[in-house]
Design goal:
alpha/beta, four-stranded parallel sheet, globular
C-alpha cells in the first residue's frame, strides 16, 4: 500500500453502476463541503466486469441528481492492484465483503475491507446497503439515504484514523 498524506478509499458493489458510484459521489461531496480534498481520494469499482466502461445506472443518476450529485464515473472491475493502492476498501453488502476477502492477496489487505452499513447512524437494524437494481424508485431512494448516512459517519471515523 502506498503511503502519503491522503487516505485512499475504494467503494465496491456488485457491478459498479448503482451503490458504489453513488457512495463515491456522496463521499466526494462531503470531502469537498468540508474542504478536505487534500486528505482524501475516492474511487469505486465492481466485483464483476459486466458494466465496465458504462456510466452508472440511469435511475441511480436521476435519483442522485435530485440530491445534487452528478454520477459520471465509468464502471470498472476491482483489480489486484487496488488492494495495494487503497487504504480502505468498502463493500456494500455481505456478498461484496465475502468476494473482496476472497480476492484480497493477504491478511493485511483483507483487514482493510470494511462494510459501509457498519457506519450507519440513523438506520438502526439496517445491516446492508441493498442493491436497488431490480427494484423501484423507493429502492434507489433507500440506497441513497443509507449511503448518505453511512458516508457522513465514515468520514468522521476516517478523520481520527492515524
Amino acid at each position: 500500500m502506498e503511503k502519503n498524506m491522503s487516505k485512499k478509499i475504494l467503494f465496491v458493489c456488485l457491478g459498479n453502476i448503482c451503490r458504489s458510484p453513488a457512495a463515491q459521489g456522496v463521499m466526494e461531496r462531503l470531502i469537498e463541503e468540508n474542504g478536505l480534498q487534500a486528505l482524501f481520494s475516492v474511487d469505486s469499482a465492481g466485483i464483476g466486469s459486466w458494466h465496465a466502461g458504462q456510466l452508472p445506472d440511469r435511475r441511480m443518476r436521476q435519483h442522485a441528481q435530485r440530491r445534487g450529485l452528478s454520477l459520471t464515473h465509468p464502471a470498472r472491475q476491482v483489480r489486484a492492484i487496488d488492494f495495494e493502492r487503497f487504504d480502505y476498501i468498502i463493500g456494500m453488502d455481505d456478498e461484496n465483503i465475502h468476494d473482496l476477502r476472497r480476492l484480497a492477496p493477504s491478511q493485511e489487505a483483507a483487514g482493510r475491507i470494511l462494510c459501509l452499513a457498519d457506519f450507519l447512524r440513523h438506520h438502526p437494524g439496517q445491516t446492508t446497503v441493498p442493491d436497488p437494481y431490480y427494484g423501484g424508485p423507493q429502492d434507489f431512494e433507500l440506497a441513497l439515504d443509507l449511503i448518505e448516512d453511512a458516508c457522513a459517519t465514515l468520514l468522521d471515523w476516517l478523520l481520527v484514523q492515524p
